[in-house]
Amino acid sequence: VQLQASGGGLVQAGDSLTLSCAASGRAFSNYIMGWFRQAPGKEREFVASIRWSGGMTYYAHSLWGRFIISRDSAKNTMYLYVDSLKPEDTGVYYCAARLTTTEAPKYDYWGQGTQVTVSS
Questions:
Q1: How would DSSP label each residue in 5-66?
Q2: Could you read off the pLDDT of 3-21 as tens digits, one per residue?
């Protein structure tokens, strides 16, 4: 499984941004895909996940409201839309994948991450 995150960059506070994660290597119908982020000097934290088959989503409670996770099965791509960006959203955003049989919070595969920097 290969995961390629993209879409990060330098943005202004209040802007919105859509990150993409291109997945390849196998069919993902039995996978859950997730987004994580790691701010400078902090531990990596869970943002959101989506079940590839059916599209059921789950969000970190503390981040509820400004993040929308989605996927395009035809393109094998997952997205994370972030609205009203804040400086505290700065960090490296990672996409990850796990089999539905892998017990959370463990993920089996990780992408390389994409940097998001929000200036005030």
A1: EE--EEEETT--EEEEEEEESS--TTEEEEEEEE-TTS--EEEEEEETTT--EEE-GGGTTT
A2: 999 999 999 999 999 999 9
- Give the bridge partners for 80, in sequence order: 19, 69
State the pairing for strand pair 114-119/9-12. parallel
Enter the tokens of residue 107. 């993920």
Tokens describing residue 80? 């994370």
Q: For residue 19, what are the β-bridge partners?
A: 80
Distance CA 24, CA 85 (A): 29
Distance CA 68, CA 88 (A): 17
